[in-house]
Specification:
Number of helices: 10
Low-confidence stretches: none
Structural class: alpha/beta
Largest sheet: 8 strands, parallel
CATH architecture: Alpha-Beta Barrel
Shape: globular
Number of strands: 12
Order of helices and strands: EEEHEHEEEHEHHEHEHEHEHH
CATH class: Alpha Beta
CATH topology: TIM Barrel
Radius of gyration: 19 Å
Bound molecules: flavin mononucleotide
Strand order of the largest sheet: 3-12-11-10-9-8-5-4
Strand content: 5-15%
CATH superfamily: Aldolase class I
Length: 355
């Protein structure tokens, strides 16, 4: 029996397996609206055997976009464009999730294949950024520190985007609180120097994330699973650490999250990451055991047996992969084949099951 290909039930949703597609920005939307690229890109992973496909970091407000070409969910045109993509994923047997995001001080930047680097100037369509404190990400424009009305608007933005995501048919939601984006900026003492109730103690630094979870859960009701992606360490001195991540993970679950998606880094350029296969798996295990919460592991998990091992050792409850799905959109079919797992293949592809 393969653990990787055993189902996982979160609230009212039973995912057909535990090998999932990690959210990946495609920088291919116009005015936040997903288009032809997304129609092909996302459903192909459902044919390829994924249990859950989480669509890219999708901005809850326009100023929360990482780049001008990010997807969004701040208006109904964006909602309506997501709906057929979700339907296509569901028709192919997988579930569709979406990552709700606000980039904070890392917003308004060039997409990876642009020739420029750093912040997009206003003359080129960029916008002023916001953050917990007026501290720039190295090489980026200085953000404006959010005031309390601005913080309230962020909470409302997440809740409104969650409602549109559900209306578009998404059955799983994820809040992005990792990789140096806004909610992570609040969590880390390196980017949060506030002296009000949103800064200082871990409880205060977590306050915005927990308010966002409350807001999203209120919209989502009792049936919809909610994931929260965190960076369990900043990989930098004086930053957010795994022991804090375990505590925050526990609080997130108390506030209505169902699973902590454990990643790391992205807050500062001087991070020191020891990259190797499965390098973030021990973090998922720390959060799972320390916080007594369900977790996913992600990061250089590229081989079926390796993913199976992550589950067998109890480090996580499911596995996200990113780049391996880009290299092979049928990673799930291949993994099932290698593990000898009995899965339902797309009938059109049945003949590839046997030699
Ligand atoms: C093209 C690309 C875009 C990404 N965009 C996002 C994103 O939108 N949200 C996010 O949380 N992580 C994003 N990531 C990180 C992945 O979700 C994943 O955590 C990371 O690539 C490590 O997993 P892997 O080694 O299996 O690729 C992105 C990664 C890639 C390669």
């Amino acid at each position: 029996m393969s653990l990787l290909f055993s189902p996982l039930t979160l609230r009212s949703v039973t995912l057909r397996n535990r090998l999932w597609v990690s959210p990946m920005c495609m920088y291919s939307a116009v005015d936040g609206v997903p288009g032809d690229w997304h129609h092909v890109h996302l459903p192909q992973f459902a044919d390829g055997g994924a249990g859950l496909i989480v669509a890219e970091a999708t901005a809850v407000v326009p100023e929360g976009r990482i780049s001008p070409h990010d997807t969004g969910l701040w208006n109904d045109a964006q909602r309506d464009a997501w709906a057929p993509i979700v339907r296509s994923i569901r028709d192919r047997g997988a579930h569709a999730g979406i990552q709700l995001a606000h980039a904070g001080r890392k917003a308004s930047t060039w997409w990876p294949w642009a020739e420029e680097r750093g912040s997009v100037p206003a003359s080129e369509g960029g916008w002023p950024t916001v953050a917990p404190s007026a501290i720039a990400f190295e090489g980026f424009a200085e953000p404006v520190a959010l005031d309390s009305a601005g913080i309230d608007a962020v909470v409302t933005g997440f809740a409104d985007a969650a409602r549109r995501a559900l209306d578009a048919g998404f059955e799983v939601l994820e809040v992005h609180s990792a990789h140096g984006y806004l909610l992570h900026q609040f969590l880390s003492p390196l980017s949060n120097h506030r002296d009000d109730e949103y800064g200082g103690s871990l409880e205060n630094r977590s306050r915005l994330l927990l308010r966002v979870i409350d807001g999203v859960r209120a919209v989502a009701g009792e049936d919809i699973p909610l994931l929260v992606r965190i960076s369990a360490t900043d990989h930098a001195e004086g930053g957010f650490v795994p022991e804090e991540a375990a505590v925050v993970g526990g609080w997130a679950i108390e506030h209505g999250a169902d699973l902590i998606d454990v990643s790391s880094g992205g807050l500062v350029l001087h991070q020191q990451i020891d990259l190797h296969p499965g390098y973030q798996v021990p973090l998922a295990e720390t959060v799972r055991q320390g916080g007594r919460v369900a977790t996913t592991a992600v990061g250089l998990i590229t081989v079926a047996y390796q993913a199976e091992q992550v589950l067998a050792t109890g480090a996580a409850d499911a596995v996200f992969a990113g780049r391996e799905w880009l290299r092979d959109p049928h990673f799930g079919l291949r993994a099932a084949h290698e593990l000898g797992a009995e899965i339902t293949w797309p009938p059109q592809y049945q003949r590839a099951r046997w030699r």
